[in-house]
Write a structure and sequence with these properties.
Rossmann fold, binds adenosine-5'-triphosphate
Length: about 200
């Protein structure tokens, strides 16, 4: 049985095209581990982390169906850096452990670990290789606006809270240029895929 010992971390800012790119790798048979999904699952009803959050903030952080009210929690975190630290200390180990488990269980020749906040959380140090999906800020803003139907100030605020384009590029081993058409990604992905297959064989 093939097991992915080789882990490629993939990141990029909001709306940069991570999902579009990882869908292409998935079509080549590569398993994608999604840190966002893991983070959401970590606070599902019944999970110890959700109980800890309710113990600290009360039932007001839950919606009517017993799920975490993320907007409410975000407000609490935004207002208080101590709360933010507490939450990070609670969730980060759980998320990291689950990411590790899923990368160990992946069965493709290598696997991709998709982490929007890879740079911010220094996860670039935990993977074998880093690929960054790069796009200029104006295109990033326009595509995200089109997709999310929110307003520009809200998206700009998220962009400003994330690592800068330069900070991301500084940790990149490989860069996928997503300034062009979505079709332009296919060749870039196919090219990197060949490299990653070779690298995975060498470890
Ligand atoms: P997030 O981190 O916010 O979830 P993401 O990095 O996964 O975003 P995508 O959802 O893949 O980004 O792309 C953002 C939007 O831009 C989507 O609507 C996607 O269809 C579109 N998009 C991606 N690449 C291109 C492209 N080259 N040309 C036009 N639209 C694109």
């Amino acid at each position: 049985m093939v097991v992915s010992d080789y882990v490629v971390g993939i990141s990029g800012g909001i709306g940069s095209g991570k999902t579009t790119v990882t869908d292409l790798f998935a079509k080549l048979g590569i398993e994608i581990i999604d840190a966002d999904l893991i983070a959401r699952e970590a606070v599902e009803p019944g999970k110890p982390a959700l109980k800890a959050i309710v113990d600290k903030f009360g039932l007001a952080v839950l919606d009517d169906s017993g799920y975490l009210n993320r907007a409410k929690l975000r407000t609490l975190v935004f207002e208080d850096s101590e709360v933010k630290n507490w939450l990070n200390e609670l969730l980060h180990p759980v998320i990291r452990q689950q990411m590790l488990l899923q990368t160990q269980q992946a069965k493709s020749a290598y696997c991709l670990l998709s982490v929007p906040l890879l740079v911010e959380n220094k996860l670039n140090e935990q993977v074998d290789r880093v690929v960054i999906v790069d796009v200029d800020e104006q295109t990033q803003l326009q595509r995200t606006l089109l997709r999310d139907k929110t307003n520009a100030p809200q998206i700009r605020a998220i962009m400003n809270a994330q690592a800068t384009r330069q900070q991301r590029l500084a940790v990149a081993d490989d860069i996928i240029d997503n300034n062009g058409k979505a079709n332009d990604l296919i060749k870039q992905v196919a090219h990197l895929h060949q490299h990653y297959l070779q690298f995975a064989k060498q470890i």
